[in-house]
Amino acid sequence: MQRRSFGVLVAGIALGLGACGGGDDDAPPKIIIDSDYNTMSDDGQLGVMAAQLQAEGKLQVLGITVVSGNKWLDQGVVEALKSMERLGMGQRIPVYAGENYALSHDWATIEQELAAGAVNDGYYGAWSVQKTAPTAAELVAPSDGFATNTALQPQHAVDFLIDSIKANPREVTILAIGPLTNIAKAMRKAPEIVPLIKQIIYMGGAVHVPGNTTKLAEFNWWFDPEAAQYVVRQPVPQVVVPLDVTDTVQLTTPIYNRIAHGARETAVTKQFKKVMGPGFNGVGFEGDPNYELDVWDTLTIAYLIDPAYATEVSEEYVDVVNAPGQANNGQSIGYATQPAGPTLQKMKVVKKFDNARFFEFYVDLLTRPVPIP
Ligand SMILES: [Ca+2]
Fold this sequence. Notes:
There is one protein chain. By secondary structure, this protein is an alpha/beta fold. The protein has one domain: Inosine-uridine Nucleoside N-ribohydrolase, Chain A, CATH 3.90.245.10. It is built from 15 helices and eleven strands. A nine-stranded mixed sheet has the order 3-2-1-4-5-6-11-9-10, sandwiched between helices. Strands 7-8 form a two-stranded antiparallel ribbon. Helix 2 packs parallel to helix 3 and helix 7 packs across helix 9. The N terminus is likely disordered. The site of calcium ion has 9 residues, from helix 2. This is Nucleoside hydrolase. Pfam families: IU_nuc_hydro (PF01156).
């Protein structure tokens, strides 16, 4: 699939446009990508996949709203702007800056949680880099430089979320692939948008498996537990892609090689090799043929395009613990029936994926021509 010719790609675009002309039922899904963006880890990969799908007429990205998480906000913004510019999509997919800090979770609270017995399982994202947001001088350029022709949108991400949802009632899917600070702020500022959201598809939570930041909590929902608890309790159709499934989807060296060392080298495959090659241990795919890495955020966009990528899904009432200073802060819990207490939302919890089919989708989109025509 990565060898598809340019001619075939153009034909695909024409077909896609033709298929959208018949009315709203055939219109491509409208999405907002709410992301703790990075150059070419899972958020950056999802950005590429979304842009290629938009070019093909299969979805419409209203915007990327950046939030702190993997990186502090401004570093994520730098990487999102360059990501879209690298693809030739800087004028077609706008980038909005959102919230810099979690609603109430800060480093002093995290230290209390560690003292209270939260077991560090290793990944603290932005907080691993520094404890407060970077200054402009501290921002790091992607290896191919800062964006030069792609400007950040002047509107705040929270207001963009509100306006976009109101302008497209019951049409917007949010791919929530970072901490939920932006989304919680938008819902608190304009509660009337809640029933107007078509659905939220999260990468977040560890419903019946251990966490990856603490032993109990998954990173995205741990980073801002107050926001996560607020958002998951809202009456919106919700799907969660938690660690339960991402623990079972591994990028292996043969699949890595199809992208990093495939037939067509592009600005995307070069960044993929540079970012993913060393893995998390500095040896990674380039040095260890048995190296594997879990796949996280990109599962959400496959699910959006075709829910049948999920081969096992349960329906559960999912909650997030918001207990600042306590060892279980940020833990997610799934209940088979509605427990006593606050009203929870029944959501679809993805448990298993069609991994082989997913990786064909993934490799295809990450190896298409760049810049996107
Ligand atoms: Ca993410």
